[in-house]
Amino acid sequence: MSATPVATDPLQVWVDKLRNQDMPIFSATLAAIGEVAENDASPTSALGRIILRDAGMTARVLRMANSVFFHGEGSRINTISRAIVLLGFDTVRNIAISVALIDAFLAGGVRDRVSAEMARCFHAAVHAKHAATVRGDASPEEVFIATLLSRIGELAFWCFSGEAGQQLDRALRKPGVVPEKVESEVLGFRLRSLTQLLAREWALPGLVANACVDSARSDSREALVIASYRLASAAEAGWQSEKARESVRDYAKLLRQDVATVAPVVAAHAREAACLAGFYGCEEAAARIPVPARPDEEDETGAPAILADPDPALQFDISRRMVALIAAHSASGAVLDLALEGAGRSLGADRAVLALVTANRSQLAARATHGRGAQQLMRHFNFLLAGAARDALTELVDHGRVIDVEASHVPAPGLPSITRLRSALGQRHQVLVPINAHGHVVGVLYVDRAATRPPMRPGTPDALATFAQLAGIALEASSRKS
Questions:
Q1: Which residue among 52, 350, 354, 421 is least crowded, i.e. fewest CB within 10 A of its CB?
Q2: Same structural domain for residues 185 and 127?
Q3: What's the CA angle centered on 275, arms 336 and 75, to 5 degrees?
């Protein structure tokens, strides 16, 4: 009986080590999923059975399937079989693979390196999916998963490397080193080569291995992965750094859009990536994703911003940018962020809120806020709708009524009460307009101004309604895509 040949190539030694010692359960799960995917005769229920073997994986897959990122604004998915019907076999398979991988990589190793690399991958994946959507790719979700897994070699190494990882970590911390050169000197191979071999070993989407290059044709899917990862990496130096600005310009060029259109999308996607990492259970990675600050009431020194008058030119510019994002099929979150920016910056308001009605229509809760005391405003703008007595808020949500009440306003007997509004948010000039989608009020845009300032101008509700209307169009488009 002949002995099993022992690998001597350093790269193959690591592949064998990961397969047989460090990640055998993951390798077995992946092999089972791969067999189902490759066998046309296998029923879709076979994938469901593999996922259902692991209660933790089942819960995580369902959580991801129900996220806005994959499912838009649709009804809740409660079973794996339903997820396969609604999202498709390939999407659910890829979610399961990514969940299994992340579970394996959360085990330990050089934690700082693991969480940093995972943060870059989540961040890059969201940008890549958007770029693929704008470019008309047939499967943006596949581009997302390929980007998310585009550094599996690095992640696997840092997670299971032991003393070799500590040695490489020390060498990489020396100033002025070239990472890939150091990897080759210390390990005898580059970590991206490990990604290529593992991608083939585990039968991951071909795009994972193909994107392990320095450059690619600008019209290729590989270029989307590379540019998005570079953008995520550059952002770590700060969004205002020249490196990040250059990466945003390159990303805009790839999308064939101007920087002014792309910049708010990039900011929204950084926030989305942090949320998504949290959905996957990667809190450390989520905390590492550099999220641009929202426009706020304070400058970098903490001084209050100047309270501006309405700016019609800015209103027009923000509306134009919202229309451009909708036309480019951008994520609804980017359009909603602009709607809030328009409400907060262009109407002369002190504060602004974008709130959404929950799926069961029981509550109206702030999604994001702008202006003085933004965090406090986020906590206070939360109103129960189910079972609430008729008042201005229920009229707004149930019948789409606009609310425009000055600080001195006292409702006449028989008119809807504003008591809840005033109790939560204070005695201010308050304007609320509904956001409509599919014939229902799904959200609200709110602005206010302190009683010590003159009331907002008469055209404020109409201007606010323009931002709300565009936000509603974006939400409708998002739900149709899902």
A1: 52
A2: yes
A3: 70
